[in-house]
Amino acid sequence: MKSAAQSRGRVPRRKRTGLSSPRLRGEGQHRTNSFTATEAKNEFGRILEKAIRGEAVVITKHDVPKAVLISIEQFNALKHAPELKLNALSSEFDVLLARMQGSKTRARMDAAFRATPRQLGKAAVAAARKRG
User: Model pTM greater than 0.70?
Assistant: First the structure.
């Protein structure tokens, strides 16, 4: 006799008894544990401890990754990564800007703005030949 789920064309999922061992994905230090949403709900304390220890925990729903549980340290590192990159770019810009403020650079830029089209063309050809 067919169950109600089978009569609607769905295949019934087998029931799990207890928490299965986590499915491990990846290699080395970047291995992740994967748990179903039900497993995560039923064993949250144990899964939270894994995240606190630095393991990324993937939570799936119908075998599709839906969320990741990570430690606050990992979260803060990810949160501040764009800020750190922006600070590095700002520092690089400041160095370049300072270099452009020198008297030699200023004199060269004044000469470039006063140059005739013929002088600009000759300078462009020379620069192209120099670069190869």
Answer: no
